[in-house]
Amino acid sequence: VTHSIPACIGSMTINSKQLDNETPVSIFAVNKCYETVQDGTFFDGSGFAALVREGYKVRSDVNISLEFRTTVAHGVLLGISSAKVDAIGLEIVHGKVLFHVNNGAGRVTATYEPRGTNSLCDGKWHKLQANKSKHHISLIIDGNLVHTDNPYVQSTSADTNNPIYLGGYPADVKQNCLTSKSSFRGCLRNLVLTKGQHTELFDFSRAFDLRGVFPHSCPGAEH
């Protein structure tokens, strides 16, 4: 087993002596246990999760679905880039969700803006689907569809080769389809990427780099 257990551990004794877990000698990626907990992965607003070390190839089509919960109006949700300009990105900016795609010819953005007093940053779960099919891009939030015209109709493939970054990205990593550097604070769950007939559900606890991210434990209410 190469990844940590998603669980709470307490009252541990060794040779009848109770261990003091309030003042550990060292600590890494361990959070407090919550009285009420939900399925999901908690991002504390300081870091990111990195998946697919060898690089994820978006190419002509991908469908991304995930659920998010936050009370903050800014934050990176997902970025997959290349060393060139090809990339895709999902982010929350001023309470709007933006889905950016660059197939090499220029960035195109689909923007979802909540109506009236509705907010996506209300601490409730919201379902997001972002679809790229050649030069077509669309965004569905809680069943509401937004799509945008793409003037670069000849350019259809996002030739990405970098990892999938969730909730933020390292300072030394280039992201060509994200405008924000703010790390996401809140919870994510049910990240699924679909290409054609191939559907992949990603387990955050199997990320090769986790900073400020706590898999499988989302506080029922933030304190």
Would you mind describing this structure in some detail?
This is LAMA1 protein. The chain contains no helices and 17 strands. It is mainly beta and 223 residues long. It has one domain: Jelly Rolls (Sandwich), CATH 2.60.120. The strands form three sheets. Strands 4, 5, 6, 7, 8, 9, 10, 11, 12, 13, 14, 15 and 16 form a 13-stranded antiparallel β-sheet that branches. It has a two-stranded antiparallel sheet with strand order 1-2. The model has no long low-confidence stretch (mean pLDDT 92).
Strand content: 35-45%
Which sequence of SSEs, written as H and E, runs from N to C? EEEEEEEEEEEEEEEEE
- Largest sheet, described in full? 13 strands, antiparallel
Estimate the helix proportion, in percent: under 10%
Task: From the 3D structure, determine the CATH topology.
Answer: Jelly Rolls
Count of domains = 1
What is the number of beta strands?
17
**By helix and strand content, what is the structural category?**
mainly beta
Average pLDDT works out at 92
Shape: globular
Q: Could you give the distance between the termini?
A: 33 Å
The CATH class is identified as Mainly Beta
CATH architecture: Sandwich
Spans of at least 5 consecutive residues whose pLDDT stays below 50 are none
Q: Rounded to an integer, what's the Rg over CA atoms?
A: 19 Å
Domain Laminin G: 38-218
Pfam family, one: Laminin_G_2
InterPro entries: ConA-like_dom_sf, Laminin_G, Neurexin-related_CASP
Protein name: LAMA1 protein
